[in-house]
From TrEMBL:
Record-level GO BP terms: monocarboxylic acid metabolic process
Gene3D superfamilies xrefs: NAD(P)-binding Rossmann-like Domain
InterPro entries for this protein: NAD(P)-bd_dom_sf (IPR036291), Sc_DH/Rdtase_CS (IPR020904), SDR (IPR050259), SDR_fam (IPR002347)
Protein name, entry field: 3-oxoacyl-ACP reductase
Family of this protein: Belongs to the short-chain dehydrogenases/reductases (SDR) family.
Species: Pedobacter cryoconitis
Pfam family, one: adh_short_C2
Length: 251
């Protein structure tokens, strides 16, 4: 890392190689934030790095391996001295009928979407406390705003993220660390478009209850994330902000 990078804010974005995570990393780099993206797929990470350039660093790591998280953050902290921003974006979903979800299925979602978020947040907060500054941004979901069928474990996980966001904000904000969350609505991707096109009833429901009448773009989450971790949002903490075209309040 050169001297110029040493003066930049340092961010970690988990699941930063594609989709919403990549959009957030792209916006951070546009705002001159040195961004470390963590993911499981080395090839995806390499492609993201090619797109994002020299302000991007990639780390291949499976965040469900909780035992490795403390040493991962120690290494990052040793290399960069200060971690200013953590975005907990990595997550997995599973669509299954309620009675078909096994204990192992449920635990797998909780492990990745809740336990790893807690573990990496704890380690990063430990590095932020001496500086009395920092921002953590969690990625929630519409699943925590209202009931969605066939995603029971994911719903439980994202509801836990909302609760953790508030509890962390109350405990850590007096120590200079702000915690917020974004709850994305239906965001356009090849995967979401394919899923909706194959289920016309679901597609009609999504559009009819979204007052703005169209799907969001990953960039909509990226720009919101950049705002929430910036000094422009210095008096905002403990917020779970829907970015959903009004979907969560739609009739």
């Amino acid at each position: 890392m050169n001297e110029n990078q040493n003066k930049l804010k340092i961010a970690i974005v988990t699941g930063g190689a594609s989709g919403i995570g990549l959009a957030i990393a792209t916006e951070f780099i546009r705002n001159n934030i040195y961004t470390i993206i963590i993911g499981r797929d080395k090839l995806k990470l390499q492609k993201a790095k090619e797109k994002l350039g020299e302000l991007c660093e990639t780390i291949t790591f499976d965040l469900s391996q909780l035992d490795g998280i403390p040493s991962l953050i120690k290494q990052i902290s040793a290399r960069h001295q200060q971690i200013d921003i953590l975005v907990n974006n990595a997550g997995i979903n599973m669509k299954k009928e309620f009675c078909e979800v096994t204990d192992a299925d449920f635990m797998q979602i909780i492990q990745t979407n809740v336990l790893s978020v807690f573990s990496i947040s704890r380690e990063v907060v430990s590095t932020m406390l001496p500086f009395k500054s920092g921002c953590i941004l969690n990625i929630s979901s519409m699943a925590a705003q209202y009931g969605i069928p066939k995603v029971i474990a994911y719903t439980a996980a994202k509801s836990a993220i909302d609760g953790m966001t508030k509890a962390m904000a109350v405990e850590l904000s007096p120590k200079g660390i702000r915690i917020n969350a974004i709850a994305p609505g239906f965001i356009y991707s090849n995967m979401s478009a394919k899923a909706l096109d194959s289920d016309p009833e679901r597609k009609a429901k999504v559009y009819s209850r979204t007052p703005m009448g169209y799907l969001g773009e990953p960039e909509d989450i990226g720009t919101t994330a950049a705002f929430l971790v910036s000094d422009a949002a210095k008096y905002i903490t403990g917020v779970i902000l829907p970015v959903d075209g009004g979907n969560s309040i739609g009739f």
